[in-house]
TrEMBL record:
Protein name (Swiss-Prot/TrEMBL): Cobyrinic acid a,c-diamide synthase CobB
Classification via Gene3D superfamilies: 3.30.70.20, P-loop containing nucleotide triphosphate hydrolases
Organism: Desulfotignum phosphitoxidans DSM 13687
PANTHER family in the cross-refs: 4FE-4S CLUSTER CONTAINING PARA FAMILY ATPASE PROTEIN
E.C. number(s) listed in UniProt: 6.3.5.9
Amino acid sequence: MIISIASGKGGTGKTTVAANLAASLNQPVTVLDCDVEEPNLHLFLHPEIQSREKVIAPVPEIDLDRCTFCKKCMDICRFNAIAVTANTVVTFPELCHSCGGCTVICPENAVTEKERILGTVETGTVPLPDMNFGQGLLDIGQVMVPPVIRQVKSHRAPDQGITLIDAPPGTSCPVIAAMKDTDFVVLVTEPTPFGLNDLKLAVETVRLMNIPHGLIINRAGIGDDAVYAYAKEKNLPVLMEIPYDKAIAQAYSKGDLIIAQQEDYKEKFQTLYKKICLLADSEKCAP
């Protein structure tokens, strides 16, 4: 079972949900922080990092002695990563999506590939029973997020285990890369106009991907009832509510788990997992 924890906007509490759900499961679980531009799951789970690997992408390198400046490499590139003038070629590695099209189409074999480091993937274990951890860290200045996310996801649990993915906020390519091939998406929102606006975008995205999904309303009690009305209108199951609570906010600010401060929440997160299993493909749920 692979479960993504996502949200339309940042700061809604998806990392809080991911960390507490992972720590509540009495089963082997792998937790992957795919918010590679700003990973913070480690602040709550305190993993012992045991290995680090670079995320490498190939980018074009031009042999000007061979190049005839025919512009075929520039024309095939959808991302404007190559510019050809009358007597030189300029490449923009930060725009390259590493499709390799330029190397294939060049009639003079003037385009080869060199390696570009996009970021790092770290893996390790959490000082809790049967929990593995992974996170990606995008290098400063890099913009190619999906390859880093895909490499983080390559460390997911074996078929019979549970994998929790802390997805990036938003609805763009990084979120889609994180949610792709997952069995269920938990959307975390807050009952405010901003939360509702971004929730609508997130729901549209998940439904286009045809992934079963449900809703957690965090900071319940603030804002208004519009999120609840939207959930009812769209037949969106509300799996759990986390009230606006000063003690929960204090636990978050200290990097503590809610379940460590309020014991009844462990059972609530276990109930959340059972609800997910009922809505997802139950055959993939760990017993």
